[in-house]
Amino acid sequence: MVKLTLRSAAMAVTAAAMSISLAACGSGGPSSASASSDSATMWGLTGGNQPVLQKSIDAWNKAHPDESIKLDFFANDAYKTKVRTAVGAGQGPTFIYGWGGGVLKSYVDAGQVADLSDFIASNPDVKSRYLPSVLKNGVIDGKTYALPNNNVQPVVLYFNKDVFDKIGAQAPKTWDDLMALVPKFKAAGIAPFSLGGQSKWPDLMWLEYLVERIGGPEVFANIAANKPNAWSDPAVKEALTKIQDLVDAGGFVNGFSSIAADSNADQALLYTGKAAMILQGGWIYQSMKTDAADFVKNGKLGFTAFPSVSGGKGDPANIVGNPSNFWSISSKATDSQKKAALDYVKSGMFTDADTQALIDSGAVPVTTGIESKLAASPDKDFLSYLYGMAKNAPTFTLSWDQALSPAQGDAMLANLDQIFLKKISPDQFVSTMNATIGK
Amino acid sequence: MSVSSASSRRVLERGPSGWLAAPALFFFLLFAIIPLAGVFFLSFTKWDGLGEIKLDGFSSWTTVLTDPVTGNALWVTAKIMFFSFIVQAPISLLLGVFTSASQKYRAVLAVLYFVPLLLSSAAVAIAYKALLDPNFGLGPGLGIPFLAQDWLGNSDLVLFVVVFVIAWQFVPFHTLIYQGGVRQIPASLYEAAQIDGAGRVQQFFAITLPQLKYTIITSSTLMVVGSLAYFDLVFVLTGGGPGYSTRLLPLHMYLTGFKANDMGAASALGVILVVIGLALALILQRLGGKNRNASQLEGA
Question: What total number of domains does chain B contain?
Answer without folding.
Answer: 1
